């Protein structure tokens, strides 16, 4: 079902099989409902440049970055934490905390002056009627201080991922939605010229399910990722085993995105796609599938993904629970790192073939804790920081840029339920 209405012009107010095979399926329509709120944003060129997402922060002269850590609250954590991270030593020094509920994913504006974080609610036991939120903060990189600006509804349950449009006009939020009603969705939030957020200009709800009971009873949008050229938005749906491609058209009559007239990408039933990552040259993409615990390599061109390779994350013969999670490329693009939760709790290390994009395993590293939901590689490529959500710890591993392997003597950070890490240059 596809329903839309004309958008107004104006500034707004306020299962574990590692051998899954993906296929590209032509569709006449996408299985979702598209709701346009009658809102759009007219952003200046200057504002667009200011808020476009930067692939890597500028290198500070002293090698010290701000590291902002998102967490789950309710236990030992209070919200967003700011550390000073010294890339020469790997030391992290706490600076400040901004109290906010379940900021499990965050993004930083290109000019480093604003931080946007989800408020992941209601969670497993919350009422389905409760919607999650997205919060905007001003950030002073030199002082390492966050100041709350405003908060808007994510227009769905359990927001878990954010992405800035390449022109900086919209912030897209993925709503995983534990509850079948309203189900998995994503929303486009206008970014005002002062960096605050407006109410959703568009909400897209997926429809469908998968074979894994309790995990795929409905749609679960887990990430929204832009193609390297900024022309397409890919929404990864764990519940329907699909990657949906949307054409980004910020000035279109139907709102900032619309379904492409070409394809959606289907994975093997029960695989549970989670996060998508494009290579630096834009010719390949990598996908983690949470339920199958795999990483898939795709060839990419003009909004279309073609499967090239599927690699399991678990060791051969592993019988415990698995949960493919985060993936990141080294700054030079030579190595791909992928985390696996469940009973595995480790990070797979793959060498990347520069021509074909294919992967070759070169190592595996324990996260030294439980549930490595997310991790990050610092901008210099010298360190990998992994958060163990269920152990209240993060570890800073020294990284060998030649072999891709991680050191055996990491530094420990004690922090409640760490789940996301972003680096900002204070200079």
Automatic annotation (TrEMBL):
Keywords: Carbohydrate metabolism, Glucose metabolism, Isomerase. Gene3D superfamilies: YVTN repeat-like/Quinoprotein amine dehydrogenase. This is 6-phosphogluconolactonase, cycloisomerase 2 family. Belongs to the cycloisomerase 2 family. The lineage of its organism: Bacteria, Pseudomonadati, Pseudomonadota, Betaproteobacteria, Burkholderiales. GO terms for cellular component: cytosol. One of its GO terms (biological process) is glucose metabolic process. InterPro entries: Cycloisomerase_2, Haem_d1_sf, Lactonase_7-beta_prop, WD40/YVTN_repeat-like_dom_sf. It comes from the Bacteria. The keyword Isomerase applies. Transmembrane segments: none annotated. It comes from Paraburkholderia caballeronis. Coiled coil: none annotated. The keyword Isomerase applies. One of its GO terms (molecular function) is 6-phosphogluconolactonase activity.
